[in-house]
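Chapter summary example.
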Amino acid sequence: MKRILIFDSHPVQYKAPVYQAMQALHPDSFEVIYATDVSVRQGHVDREFGKEVAWDTPLLSGYRYRVLHNERGVPLSSPASLTGRGIFKLLRTERPAAVMLTQARYWFDHTAYLSALALRIPILIRQETQDDMYAGQRSPLKEVVRKTAYRLLYAPARHAFAFGQLNHAHLTRHGVPDQRISHARFSVPNPLSGWRDEQRWSARRALRDSMGLSDEHIVLGFFGKLIDKKNPELLFECLPHLPQAVRARLHIMVVGAGELQERVARLAADALQRHGVTCSFMGFINQSKLPDYYLAADIVALPSRRMGEAWGLVINEALQAGCGVVMSDAVGCMAEFGQLERVRVIPVGSAAGLASAIDALAPYRRNFHWASSHMQRYSSEAAAQAIQAVFKRYV
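The structure predicted for these 395 residues follows.
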């Protein structure tokens, strides 16, 4: 049986569960071709986290894959850092039923695309991009070049998978007709799916107790890389705009690491001195331990700048845990989740907007399940079913 070959740069913690679910649905109908496995090697330094990162969830089990080791220099650092070595020969030898491309950043991706074209192998697209990420920041010439490049890229594609509303708009804007698009929504695995409510409350209380917090505290969580794009400083800049009654109960929990860590620590010290708001720095927490931190939080904020936040996966994780959510209008998934009851969308960089959103969400009682029915559409299993429904046309 011919397989579909999925070309992906490296194992990623939210993509591997989709591949595992796809394998369970239709065994051996596909194989993932990775350029590098650097993300699962011991000693791998994530440049944005600023530390060694080794994911503790299985990213290379439960599905068929191979690694081409096409690194040049520092992997994932530039388009030339993953080469196209061996791809044309691989496709010519195996003649897959189709190829699915997941990005167009590296030489690895470009070679897979051009090789499939040359060998007349059907091309499927599942690319995580949208047009609002850098809105207003490109020159007119760059916009024309970008639009032309995407139209040329997508023209030969037999099918495209949209991971969200803004991605769907991007595809249609660049010439992909609706009849060649289906939704395989952005998903992250839900580690809480088998947890009973007693377990959730117990984990929440245990972590809050370890931070010296009572049930009365409102825990505002930031999850992710402490980098300029994520704008963690806004959590502290909003404090003067908060009502004193909310500020008196607020505790900021920072889960993550990165180049802004020292600056954020100074802001936290100033917040304590000026406003009496306490803060806990939890550092980088690996995937298997994250559920406790989301359960301990009441509100999760992602105030990203317009610097390429195509989706914002921490929002999925926060909603799975039943947190209230505040995100900036630069976060791609605001189109999906912005209308939900306990979600607020604020203008980029608005300290007053963040304070108003926190004030609006503070009165809600903690409910682990308020978003559960909506999030079923954003599960790894739902994405796998959507992709396999199209794969069946080819294998």
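To summarize the output: The chain has a mean pLDDT of 95.
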